[in-house]
Write the structure tokens for this entry.
Amino acid sequence: MVEAFITWWAAHVPLSPNLSVFFVSMIPLIEERGGLILARMLNIPMWTGVFWCVIGNIVPIPFILLLIKTVIHWMAEHHLSGVAEWLMAKAEKNRPKIERYGFLGLMLFVGIPLPGTGAWTGSLVAAVFDMDLKKSSISILLGIFLAAVIMTVVSYGLIGSVIS
């Protein structure tokens, strides 16, 4: 699904390559992972792609951490209770994974590129369950950097370059 969206974006969205990568990296569930795939597809140099992806992935985090509980409450009261319930269920489903290991758990949850993980979901869980703002922010940032390393290796084929 992510690859199909990235292919569609590259073909239909009239933005510069750097802005495309920046905005794709801000989209929930696609985030930095999709941004780095797009950067590679658009032949953006590796470090430029990483820069725009990391910045794009970081931008929404303070807003999620500070405002998501208010947004969920508003949605629940304004005929969007299904969406609010889905968000709360998503947070609750991931809570044990993060709480078990605390700071490190949140960092790994954000940083290891698996479906349903990432900065958006990690921020949602941290905010909904009132995790310490400073610690969760640092943990999420470290997770974003970890995801950047992993996805750069995957997207830009560095594993193949090192082995051959």
Q: What stands out?
A: The two ends are 31 Å apart (CA to CA). DSSP finds nine helices and no strands in the chain. The chain has two domains: 2-58+153-163, 61-144.
